[in-house]
Amino acid sequence: MALYEHVFLARQDISQQQVDALVEQYKGIIETNGGSVGRIESWGLRALTYRINKNRKAYYSLLNINAPAAAVAELERQQRINEDVLRFMTIRVEEHEEGQSAMLARRDDRRDRDDNKFGGRDDDRPRRPRRPRDNEAGEGAE
């Protein structure tokens, strides 16, 4: 059996519980066709780069799949029919990544950077001299 990474985008109008139900439904499709689903990641509600079917946001979900090609074809067929699924993409991989995916790792990195947001400047960051504005330079002051 081949290894796949499958990502799908669900409409913003549905709830997180409905997205979880979709994931369970698709997991069942894979398992009934002789495959298995490893890691499941929910990346949450994220903004889209451009509108898709009048949606500006979508729920992202990742499934690591170990299944025959027929099971993946059935999964994609079911997702084409479902109106709650905006887009999906399946990629065949040599092996699944250990640990978090790049999307979740990036989210954690952002949180670490945001912790320093109100703590002041980093000492190792170069500082630029402040340029005076036109009204601060004394021009036009009466």
TrEMBL record:
It comes from the Bacteria. Keywords: Ribonucleoprotein, Ribosomal protein, RNA-binding, rRNA-binding. Residues 97-142 are annotated as: Disordered. One of its GO terms (biological process) is translation. The keyword Ribonucleoprotein applies. One of its GO terms (cellular component) is cytosolic small ribosomal subunit. Pfam families: Ribosomal_S6. Binds together with bS18 to 16S ribosomal RNA. NCBIfam families: S6. This is Small ribosomal subunit protein bS6. It comes from Phyllobacterium zundukense. The lineage of its organism: Bacteria, Pseudomonadati, Pseudomonadota, Alphaproteobacteria, Hyphomicrobiales.
